[in-house]
């Protein structure tokens, strides 16, 4: 159950971050369909890759955490760009790639700070209702 809540919250955060990045950068083309597909794929890719990055971070300490997070975001965007039709989701130019990656990464870091609290609040609330407390 926690995984499902985490997936929905991550998708919502990623969707907002994509909208912000698309507004800020002319070379980040994003249609509504691309926003939906891109948000879903990026969320899926980053959640799958997160486990790999977490094990690497434990192995190589704090420098890997920062670089791993940025790399994870970039790989997630790259895979999303590759698997989403060009007319719906398209990043162009080195500067756009760098800044969109950083915006999405910073947003993800902020989201991760509140993620566990949101999960616990939602999970605790549903537990309280189911037990009648």
Summarize the topology.
Blueprint lengths: L1 H23 L3 E3 L1 H52 L5 E3 L2 H38 L2
Antiparallel strand pairs: 1-2
Helix pairs in contact: 1-2, 1-3, 2-3
Organism: Jiangella rhizosphaerae
Keywords: Membrane, Transmembrane, Transmembrane helix
Protein name: Phage holin family protein
Summarize the structure.
By secondary structure, the chain is mainly alpha-helical. It has one domain. The protein has helices at residues 2-24, 32-83, 94-131, and strands spanning 28-30, 89-91.
* Major sheet summary line: 2 strands, antiparallel
Order of helices and strands: HEHEH
- The CA-CA distance between the termini, in Å, is 20 Å
Helix content: over 70%
Transmembrane segments: 7-25, 31-52, 64-83, 89-111
Keywords: Membrane, Transmembrane, Transmembrane helix
Protein name: Phage holin family protein
Descriptive tags:
133 residues; 85% helix; two-stranded antiparallel ribbon; globular; mainly alpha; 5% strand; single chain
Description of the structure:
The protein has 133 residues and is mostly helical. The chain has one domain. A two-stranded antiparallel ribbon has the order 1-2. Helix 1 packs antiparallel against helix 3. The model has no long low-confidence stretch (mean pLDDT 83). This is Phage holin family protein. Keywords: Membrane, Transmembrane, Transmembrane helix. It comes from Jiangella rhizosphaerae.
């Amino acid at each position: 159950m926690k995984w499902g809540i985490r997936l929905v919250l991550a998708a919502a955060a990623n969707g907002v971050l994509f909208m912000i990045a698309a507004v800020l950068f002319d070379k980040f083309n994003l249609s509504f369909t691309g926003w939906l597909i891109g948000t879903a794929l990026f969320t899926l890719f980053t959640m799958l890759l997160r486990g790999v990055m977490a094990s690497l971070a434990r192995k190589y300490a704090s420098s890997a955490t920062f670089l791993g997070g940025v790399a994870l975001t970039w790989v997630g965007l790259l895979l999303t760009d590759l698997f989403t039709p060009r007319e719906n989701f398209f990043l162009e130019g080195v500067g756009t790639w760098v800044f969109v990656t950083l915006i999405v990464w910073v947003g993800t870091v902020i989201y991760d700070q509140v993620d566990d609290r949101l999960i616990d609040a939602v999970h605790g609330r549903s537990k309280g209702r189911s037990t009648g407390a």
